[in-house]
Amino acid sequence: MTNHQAYLLGFIGAGKLAGSVIRGLVSAGFCPPTRIIASEPNHEVRDALVRDTGISGTAENREVAQQAEILFIGVKPSVVLPVLHELAAMISRKVVVSLAAGVRISSMEKSARARFLRALTNTPSAIGSAATAVAFSSHSSSADKELAKKLFGSIGVVVEVEEKYMDAVTALSGSGPAFVYTVIEGLAEGGKRCGLPAEVAFALASQTVLGAARLAIESNLSPEALRRMVVTPGGTTAAGLAELDKFGTMDGLIAAVEAAARRSRELAEETARDGLPAKPHPHA
Q: Which among 264, 99, 266 is positioned nearest to 167, based on CA atoms?
């Protein structure tokens, strides 16, 4: 490597999602933390990440762009194109992975001549339990694809999709954890109202969701078949499911995913329409 490639992985922005990916990669041993550098303007967030993981941190996007071989764009969607425009000369022909919702590869390719791909993942990446979908550009090589799948496979499950499906992925696996946390919160609150101490209710609710999810994955049975394994006609579960139907819980979850996907499409349209601002923002 040259002096301008001191690091394997570089992150432009290291907030909630990108920080989770970094923590997961370090924990999984994908590469030594000394081979990762991240730029983050919030010094408290940056210092905590460096302290927790042992990676290198900086406030300068240019430092990351110059020194890393593979770049991750972990900034807000509205900032992606200005950042790429600013760093265009330094990222030419490098592999650039966008973690942002609603910013199309075609839009990014107008800002810089890099080998772009998109990876929609989620915060459970921090503990190696991510659900990630990757979409590649026509310029992605077979080596690029193999690298991306190996990288995201080290922190969870990874699937390849066409880019047209990324809005749905954003809604389902990107926003999905927040929807699941709402389910956990609701289950725990129900337990509390039935007399359980708060900490007991939360522990049981969280483990119940985890166990149900693992059984769904490992059994290969449909949700309907798994439900039938729990329900006894006229029993307690049947009574609870009747209340879920009455309050439209299923419809609410479907609507939540659809709303998130719709917002992702809107972000993409806004990005394509508005283009670059006159003075790109200098930081993530």
A: 264
Burial 144-180 (b: 16+ CB within 10 A, else e): beebbeebbebbbebeeeebeebbbbbbbbbbbeeee
Query: Domain ranges in the chain?
Result: 7-167, 176-247
127 touches 24 (CB < 8 A) = yes
Instruction: Please say whether the dihedral angle defined by the alpha carbons of residues 155, 157, 162 and 165, taken in this order, is positive or negative.
Output: negative
Give pLDDT tens digits for 131-177. Answer: 999 999 988 999 999 999 999 999 999 999 999 999 999 999 999 99
Q: How far is CA 138 from its chain centroid?
A: 23
Into which CATH architecture does domain 176-247 fall? Orthogonal Bundle (1.10)
C-alpha 32: how far from its chain's center? 22
| Residue 265, Cβ density class (10 Å: 0-12 exposed, 13-18 middle, ≥19 buried) | middle
Q: Are the beta carbons of 31 and 10 closer than 8 angstroms? A: no
Q: What is the pLDDT of residues 87-117, one digit of tens each?
A: 999 999 899 999 999 999 999 999 999 999 9
Residue 58 in this model has a pLDDT that exceeds 50: yes
Q: In a 3-state reduction of DSSP, which class is residue 232? A: coil
How far is 211 from 213, CA to CA, in rounded Å? 5
DSSP state at residue 254? H
Checking if the pLDDT of 36 tops 60, the result is: yes
Residues 16-25: pLDDT tens digits?
999 999 999 9
User: What's the CATH fold of domain 7-167?
Assistant: Rossmann fold (3.40.50)
